[in-house]
Automatic annotation (TrEMBL):
Signal sequence range: 1-21
Protein name: MRH domain-containing protein
Highest taxon of the lineage: Eukaryota
Cell compartment(s), UniProt: Endomembrane system
UniProt main location, coarse: membrane
Keyword terms: Disulfide bond, Membrane, Signal, Transmembrane, Transmembrane helix, Transport
Statement: the UniProt record of this protein carries the keyword Transmembrane helix: yes
Entries under InterPro entries matching the protein: Man6P_isomerase_rcpt-bd_dom_sf, MRH_dom
Transmembrane segments: 315-339
An annotated GO cellular component: trans-Golgi network
Lineage, highest ranks first: Eukaryota, Metazoa, Spiralia, Gnathifera, Rotifera
Keyword Repressor tagged: no
Domain MRH, chain residue ranges per copy: 166-303
Length: 371
């Protein structure tokens, strides 16, 4: 019965986190920046290869690479890999694109990676010394634990010597950080939906900073152009094809489509009023397949939005809340049943049936007598 309570508590923790995929390399928080780009190997090899579990027989070896994907045997595009000692099999236990950061109020940070039913949790430990990996192994079924010791695991321990950027943020060694994470929605919908352009057009425009969205036939997009009548939509920019320009004057994010036939420029305009809303002005198509928008926000200012918290709709929050309440009720009910029920000795009256001692489920109709 105790195993039920343990499983329920684990579910409670996972529901309480309600975390979606984050950037696997860099975390920007109120305490500063954790930057793992200098720890990971960017050439397709794991920075930590074939490490044995600490204090245990090394039936399995584990490989891990922060920030960048690697390949090893059957582990393809992996963040973590479990390999049999004799190399007879290998299994991906985490991928970079599933990464979630968990940061406590005290600043303790962990990375959580997923791969199907597998979960890999890497605790970061701030150490002023060489990079080290401690493999703690599979603590529960399908849940693997490691500890990464590094100077780069410290807040502001490895500030990038040169600018680092992606679709969510731009980190400059001197100027600071522009972080759009908190503006973008994470529920697959655009923050700015069906906006009219200032130029005369029969189209509407949708845009979501940082995270992909889908609208009509415009799928996995950063921005879409939608025909008002037919509702046919075209992708005009993707989150995976981004570059930043005009950093010292008017920072601008340029999104391209995969075939680079269309491009969208979003000029970021700093509005340092802390109560100001995020506003999008759509200029429209300024030339053939080139589009222009202006985003006014506090988060467009240098160090305007240090937090990594993404925005979302209220629905996932409500679901998380209901789930947490339900699990708390379930755990409380089970606990009451365990501790309020009189202890008794159970005697089997037949060997034909089986009782699972670890998870007390009666298989078939085994009969029990109380003494």
């Amino acid at each position: 019965m105790h195993s039920y309570v343990r499983i329920s508590l684990l579910l409670l923790v996972k529901l309480a986190l309600c975390v979606l995929g984050d950037n696997p390399c860099v975390y920007i928080g109120t305490q500063g920046i954790i930057n793992l780009t200098l720890v990971g190997d960017s050439h397709g090899e794991p920075a930590f290869k074939d490490y044995g579990q600490s204090g245990m027989p090394d039936y399995y070896r584990y490989s891990y690479n922060p920030c960048y994907s690697f390949n090893e045997l059957n582990c393809i595009n992996s963040a973590g890999c479990q390999v049999a000692k004799d190399k007879s099999y290998s299994l991906t236990i985490g991928t970079q694109n599933s990464t979630s950061w968990i940061v406590s109020a005290s600043g303790a940070a962990s990375l959580v990676y997923k791969a199907g039913p597998k979960t890999m949790i890497v605790d970061l430990q701030c150490v002023d010394g060489p990079n080290q990996l401690i493999v703690n192994g599979e603590k529960t079924i399908n849940e693997y634990h490691m500890t990464l010791q590094s100077k780069c695991a410290c807040w502001n321990g490895c500030l990038p010597p040169k600018p680092v950027s992606n679709a969510c943020f731009y980190i400059h060694p001197q100027l600071g950080t522009i972080n759009l994470t908190s503006i973008g929605k994470t529920n697959g919908k655009p923050r700015f939906k069906d906006i009219k352009s200032t130029l005369l057009s029969s189209s509407l425009w949708s845009y979501n900073p940082c995270f992909q969205f889908t609208e009509y036939n415009c799928q996995n997009a950063a921005a879409c152009q939608i025909d008002r009548k037919s509702k046919l939509a075209n992708i005009i920019g993707e989150q995976d094809n981004v570059q930043w320009e005009n950093i010292y004057t008017n920072p601008t994010i340029i999104y391209h489509t995969a075939n680079r036939q269309r491009s969208l420029s979003v000029e970021l305009i700093c509005n340092d009023n802390k109560d100001a809303s995020n506003d999008l002005e759509v200029i429209g198509e300024i030339s053939g397949n080139e589009f222009y928008m202006k985003l006014r926000s506090k988060c467009a200012c240098w160090n305007g939005c240090p937090s990594n918290k993404p925005s979302s709709s209220k629905f996932p929050l409500i679901v998380c809340g209901i789930g947490i309440i339900a699990i708390i009720f379930f755990v409380s009910l089970i606990s009451c049943l365990i501790w309020s029920k009189p202890h008794s000795t159970l005697t089997r009256i037949t060997k034909r049936y089986i009782i699972d001692e670890k998870a007390p489920i009666l298989i078939n109709d085994a009969k029990l007598i109380k003494h």
